[in-house]
Amino acid sequence: MKNMLQQYFPMIRTKEELMSEIRKGSVLSREFYSWKQEARKEFIDFCTGAKGVKMMYDFISKEILNPEVVPERVDELLSLLLGQEVHVKDVLPNDGTRIADESALVIMDIVVELQDKSIVNLEVQKIGYKFPGARSACYSADLLMRQYKKVRSKRKKKFNYNDIKDVYTIVLFEQSPGAFHEFPDDYLHQFHQCSNTGLKLNLLQKYLFVPLDIFLDSLQYKDIKIQNRLDAWLAFLGSDDPEIIIDIIERYPDFKEMYQQVYDICRNIEEVMGMFSKELLEMDRNTVELMIDEMQDEIKQQKEVIEEKDTIIQKNEAELKEKDEVLQQKDSELQEMQQKMKELQEQLEQLQK
Q: What pTM, to 2 d.p., does this model score?
């Protein structure tokens, strides 16, 4: 019997067909059984429609949202996120100053120039980095300087700062950092610089952070339905729940084409297994790195606690030493007084004779 997604996408294989093809080839079979049980189940589920395909897979997102191949999709997504109609004019290189090690947790990183010369950096992170604000500010500053150098070089003596346009940094998280979970009812966080007096100056740098996990929680656990195309896009990017996928394509049938493209990709088992293996290796490396980072943070925190306690102990020891010195001084004074009293007593006895 066909599952829910197979009814909408007949090209999806059954589990029996999938496993038969894997077992036919020794290379595919060896690779498949080298994965952990959890990974094997995940692969079977999305290839057979038991679950949807996560658009957060690197090899999927780059096909679905390639601004050079399907700019209209990127146009719509950016327009919905920014709340204004925009169109991609050029795709820019994003090599800037990005730290090489950071690319591991970034699923998709697109830098585009819009028709009005504004620059947008759209980034999707599988696991949110620490210090997302400071990190985004650094990359925004890098993009702003790249734009400045480019425009100044092109305009030469005709250059003025009005030629520099807005730089938008948009970050979507599959697993958002802890700070975002302090706002469980919000999933669109916009930031821009403003004054404390109401004076309005365009300082060019604007930010949008979208925790997809919090958005999906609102769909799954708070019984909030998809209301508009932005909701549909966010659910499309983040959810592998068949019911949500069907809800998307029934409300907005044009999304079916993108899902169909994904399942066409999944028909090439050898290629998909190769790309999935790379994803697993990358995630294993990321997990180890995150564990090391967390352990280092924990060690640092414990060291700070120990140092703080050591400072308190040293302070207490100093206070005890000071008190001991005071006691010794008082004891000495007491002994002197006792000696004087003894002498006075002796004098009194002499006078009474």
A: 0.77
